[in-house]
Amino acid sequence: PAPARGALLCMSAGGRAESQPCKGMLVMIDGEPFEVLEVITVDPGQRQSKSKLKVRHVGTGAVAFRTLKTGTKIQELAAASKTSTYSFFDESEEQFVFMDSETFEELRLHRDQVGDMTDWLTAGVEVDVKAFNGKVLSFGFRSKVIEEVVDLRPWLHPRGKQMHKAYYVCACLSNGLTRRGPPYLKVGDKVVIDPQTGNIVRRV
Q1: Which CATH number characterizes residue 108's domain?
Q2: pTM here?
Q3: How far apart are CA 25 and CA 35, in angstroms?
Q4: In 3-state terms, what secondary structure has residue 156?
Q5: Which of 34, 50, 76 is the last residue of a domain?
Q6: What pLDDT, on the 0 to 100 scale, is given for residue 111?
Q7: pLDDT (0 to 100) of residue 138
Q8: ∠154-159-162 over CA atoms, to 5°?
Q9: What CA–CA distance (Å, rounded) separates 106 from 31?
Q10: Which residues constitute the domain of residue 117?
């Protein structure tokens, strides 16, 4: 669909209007590359309405806001996406080492680039890495994260009170972590994990 009248326009390298900026898009503003985190319309419907972009600088990682007049044309940048396979953790460099599935080149990510998803990295798992000029923008698993339930314990309320087993159980997983799970889980079950939250989604 065509962009709304007066909206911000993202331009391709050839100068043709492509779309309105949206979350996850890479754009060039004032000669600097940014990743769009959020788009906020200010004073919608007014003649001089503006759009505020919450952006992250690709080079420094600094988060800032940029306010632009409607109708402003900004250039959309192309990011490279690649599939890599996790190999091992280099303790000396404190880096997670991946292998590019096409070129077989090494890709190294620091712990802060992987975030809390480090808990679910196992040898051989495939991930998608989005990068621009060598800077990693996003990291995610290509397939579902599946762990085995190796033990079950009573789930304790944050106040220390044991919850009735009809509500939740404490599932000990094959990677050494424990998570709250539904009461129907049994030892030996395999469960799907949401790596973003670390929660058990369902039983396989």
Answers
A1: 2.40.50.140
A2: 0.60
A3: 6
A4: strand
A5: 76
A6: 81
A7: 76
A8: 25
A9: 30
A10: 81-141
Residue 198 in 3-state DSSP?
A: coil
Residues whose CB is less than 8 angstroms from the CB of residue 160 and which lie 6 or more positions away in sequence, other chains included: none
Q: Decide if 2 is inside a domain.
A: no
Q: Is the dihedral of CA 173, 178, 181, 183 positive or negative?
A: positive
| Site of tokens 């590359």 | 33
Is residue 170 within 8 Å of residue 157, measured between CB atoms?
no
Vertex 62, ends 40 and 56: CA angle to 5°?
40
**Residue 113 domain-assigned (yes or no):** yes
Averaged pLDDT, groups of 10, the chain, 204 residues long: 44 51 81 85 62 83 82 78 90 90 87 81 87 77 90 75 67 92 93 89 92
Residue 92 CB contacts under 8 Å (≥ 6 apart), including other chains: none
According to the model, what pLDDT value does residue 24 have? 79
Distance CA 88, CA 101 (A): 15
What does the alpha-carbon distance between residue 150 and residue 163 come to, in Å, rounded to a whole number? 20
Q: Is residue 9 part of a domain?
A: no
Q: Can you give 94-117 as a three-state secondary structure string?
A: CEEEEEECCCCCEEEEEHHHHHHH
